[in-house]
Design brief:
By secondary structure, the first copy, chain A, is α/β, with parallel strands linked by helices. The first copy, chain A, has six helices and eight strands. In chain A, the strands form two sheets. In chain A, strands 1, 2, 3, 4, 5 and 6 form a six-stranded parallel sheet that branches. In chain A, strands 7-8 form a two-stranded antiparallel sheet.
């Protein structure tokens, strides 16, 4: 059993990214992990943008990251990259805040034309923070059914590979033993 | 004479990026341009992150971008890319908000190891917004002297090429005639 | 009237990239430009990979680039980026071989998932060589009809925007006046 | 004990990249691995660029990759990215040739300004091929002493972290158990 943070980087109140994350958090909890969703858009905007890590809510979110063995880092694609909201939170973390942690990058977008943003935009940022970044995944918006009353669902063509990747991530987090690099 | 917006993406109150921008704004004003500095960190954080373009201050900044012929888009490098603060502002603009506009990307960083972030991180975002992105520039932090009382200065090794690039940008903005592409 | 090189980076003998380039070369010739297609796969492989710029065929290709006012640089997308064949040729050119030249990056691919490779992979390389890189374009393979007997054609949904972009490139090459930057 | 391929992507006959790789191959052999250096520049140029996987030398190199548990993929930085020589070889491999394999990206360059090319250029290509890409490393040319007679050495500031990373890679290859993803 590991401690996992699901970091939600969508600024939208009716976010498809958030809907997918709820499903994945449930799956990871089912695998016995201790899962916490950190929704960046619910953090106080002023302290977030000013990188005020003394503010209790920011301090608590930073501590959650520090204590996690693994993270799902999720964002919709805006303007060919991750959201500014997600990056603003990553910016206030220490440079190597993700060292020794296994990270699954998860991105949603309205067109397959955004797919490469996972590897060309999000992954380099996570790698620069010391993360052990495994396989990422891109979910097409139209495969996410928000279904406000009955709860969100994924189309089978997205659900099968995504659950498979999350299960692999679950195993990787459980077994990952970071190796200290002497500099 | 053209209308130029200098978009400042540093969250820091004692920003070296901002210091360089003051120098460049002065230079562009000297060339007869109408220059306005938009400091993103002075916009209201809540409306900024919620993309509330009805808020007067946000609305005013968006209008400034819409009315500009050219922009300097500036950011320090955090975590191998532009700041979340800058991206949050770009995220609330329309997808093609920079179409027909000449853009000079300007980046500051503490080590030359950040140089490629101009072309691999910032430029693709600006290009996705339709901008005509010219030559960019990277200024090493240590070449920027903040000099709080007498005003900021640049070391000659940074000042000469930067002013030369800004002068080229000035000419490019003045002469640029966007060509409409039929889709 | 300007001198334009169309640089073909596909290793395939039945290349869709090459088919599109033939159409564009015709269009540019129609605009009064002096157009030359440099097909990298027809250069001698040994001297190409050894960067032997004394070999007559390599020397001639390098001179064509040096003499061009503008270039279309074209490649299919393999493994999320431009081809090794194209990069091998760019590698043997001087670092600033494209300074003062207007460049149109053109990429073909089998799925829209490759679109961002234009801006995240090809453009940074061209920019590092001093090129003035304008708007790029991605053509989906299935919109290119090779039609070996009657000659290649493009589906209207690709042909209209592409010709429009090439016409804009034609004007940009004709009017571009590089500004010398003092370093 | 694992089977490891060291893939050398420098076209130079007096390559600093190759010198570093000799040191690393020795280290990995010392850890009990079966190490093979594949020097791309020694493959026949014509068949390489034509992706002729029936040519015996090409076929043999492809088989070496297929049989490896882990790879060091190494390149100098030319024009802000990996070499065309390296990419030409990767281009002729199957799309998922690196699936289930642990990869250490290793890059050399003349200035720290090239550092980010590891994560923004090389890593996305390796990831697109299914590789499990761990921490990468950049070695500054001037820290590599070619010493033609006594054999190459690394300056201590480069040797310590690099050997540490290679040791971590050695452990990761030995322990990595790829997880099959159902699509």
């Amino acid at each position: 059993m590991a401690s996992i943070v699901v970091l939600a980087g969508s600024p939208s109140t009716t976010s498809r990214t958030a809907a997918v994350l709820d499903l994945l958090a449930l799956r990871l909890t089912g695998h016995g992990h201790d899962v916490r969703i950190v929704s960046i858009r619910e953090l106080p905007p002023g302290p977030l943008l000013a990188a005020d890590t003394h503010h209790p809510a920011i301090c608590d979110a930073v501590a959650a990251i520090a204590g996690a063995h693994g993270l799902i880092v999720a964002s919709p694609i805006y303007k060919a990259a991750y959201t500014g909201l997600l990056k603003a939170f990553l910016d206030l973390l220490p440079q190597y805040a993700l060292a020794g942690k296994t990270v699954l990058p998860l991105v949603t977008g309205g067109t397959p034309a955004h797919v490469l943003a996972v590897d060309y935009a999000l992954r380099p940022v996570l790698t620069s923070m010391g993360a052990h970044v495994g396989q990422g995944y891109f979910v097409l918006d139209q495969l996410i059914n928000l279904a406000p009353t009955t709860g969100p669902t994924l189309a089978p063509t997205a659900e099968r590979p995504l659950l498979s990747i999350v299960d692999a991530f679950s195993e990787a987090v459980a077994s990952f033993r970071p190796v200290t690099v002497t500099v």
